[in-house]
Amino acid sequence: MSLSTYALGQRAIGGFKFHTADWNTTNTGTALGSGDGIEWLYKGTPKTKVIWTDNTRSTGGAAIQYKREKVQEEFDGSFSVNAGFRLNQRLVAAVYGTDTTTLISGTAYSHLMTFNSIMGGVNGNLGWTDNLNLHDCAMFRVESIDFDWAENKIGELTVNGFGKREILDGSGSNTLATVNANCTLPTQNTTRYQFLSSAQARVRLALAASGALGAAADYTATDAIYPNHIKMSIKRKYMRRHTNLNNPYMDEPVGSDWYEISGTLDLPIMEYAALYTNLIPGTEHKMDIRFLGSQIAVTGQYDTWTWEHPSVTIDTSGLPSLDTPDLLKVSIPWKASTATTAPTGMAFTTPRLTIIDATSASHLTNGV
Q: Long-range contacts of range 6-12, CB-CB < 8 Å, 24 or more positions apart?
């Protein structure tokens, strides 16, 4: 027997697009098209999970196993994409929930992303293809994102989320043919196709009570430290509900302004003696992580992602021990939270991300 058709993962095309359709009253989202594409990595996709109940009953004195009944269905999981300056803004905006867009000059715009206290309605249409099927989820909610920047590698973003249901028969807002024909990546910087990599990162760490970053000189003259591996996880908290409103599917999840940011900084050598002094008593820090890309068509403006954390606490468990006669390495696990008061050099108390790109519209309204 010869096979004429079979599923090929390398032909995957897919995307994500926000819409305003109501989760609880519809199963249709929005059509994926130009600029809605995302770069899939071959590390899995969300899946449908079905809970069945046995249907055993007695008929004429005999116990009979009848057809099982579906009582609950959930669509959840994670997928991974390349971390690009102009590839992932929507996915990140879906976690923060607020994108305040400001013109800097010319075609350069600043997108200030902060945590929205009300996350209802921040839903998008997620879809991807193989060469046989379209996997379409009209109501998808991003729950968390995990960044990983390792030495000599392209940055990677893993997106975790869940949806109301998966549609495979083309009855939603997309079909296999339309996604294959119309879904394309966002417009990239004309200088070159850019990814966020550890080589483009600047990490600055200082005591919260010190002067502004770049001048505090707690660990180096400019507060810059030099990790070769950076991890960061940003999570929101949602309650998943199953009621008779959408049974067997999930009702729209309920969220709040609760968030959790954590990560690690791996240093190939331990060269900052003051870290011992400051970390053992649990001293509060502040930190920023910036990735600088190519110039936009405006003098002095570049594709840039900058995370600013006004309150950072560091676990001493990652400090080196004498377990090798070689140079000592260190892994610094950290958590970011809301500061009681704004530290010097930061006129705010909550963590934030600022993206500079050439998109004039908010990424929460599908700006490309």
A: 6/132, 7/130, 7/131, 7/132, 7/133, 8/130, 8/131, 9/42, 9/130, 10/42, 11/129, 11/130, 11/131, 12/40, 12/128, 12/129, 12/130
Q: Does residue 250 sit in helix, strand or coil?
A: coil
Distance CA 309, CA 291 (A): 15
pLDDT digits (tens, 9 = 90+) for 144-165: 999 999 988 889 999 999 999 9
State how far the alpha carbon of 113 is from the alpha carbons of 94, 218, 250, 307, 352, in Å.
10, 28, 28, 9, 6
| Cα–Cα separations (whole angstroms), residue 313 to 113, 118, 263, 278, 310 | 22, 26, 11, 11, 10
Query: 37: which 2 tokens?
Result: 């594409």
Mean pLDDT of 238-251: 90
Give, in order, the Cα–Cα distances in Å from 144 to each of 68, 76, 271, 314, 315: 34, 12, 33, 21, 22
pLDDT tier for residue 191 given thresholds of 50, 70 and 90: low
Q: Which long-range contacts (CB under 8 A, 24 or more apart) does 21-26 make?
A: 21/123, 21/138, 21/139, 22/252, 23/121, 23/123, 23/139, 23/164, 23/251, 23/252, 24/245, 24/246, 24/251, 24/252, 26/138
Partners of 73 in the β-ladder: 50
- For the chain, the straight-line distance linking the first and the last C-alpha, in angstroms and rounded, comes to 47
pLDDT at 62 over 70: no
List pLDDT tens digits, range 105-126.
999 999 999 998 877 778 999 9
Phi and psi for 206 in degrees, rounded to 5? -150, 165
In 3-state terms, what secondary structure has residue 308?
strand
**Residue predicted with more confidence, 189 or 250:** 250
- What are the beta bridge partners of residue 111? 101, 355
On the question of pLDDT at 302 being above 80, the answer is: yes
Nearest C-alpha neighbor of 232 from the set 288, 278, 152, 294: 288
- Residue 177 CB neighbour total at 10 angstroms: 11
Q: Which residue has the higher pLDDT, 1 or 147?
A: 147
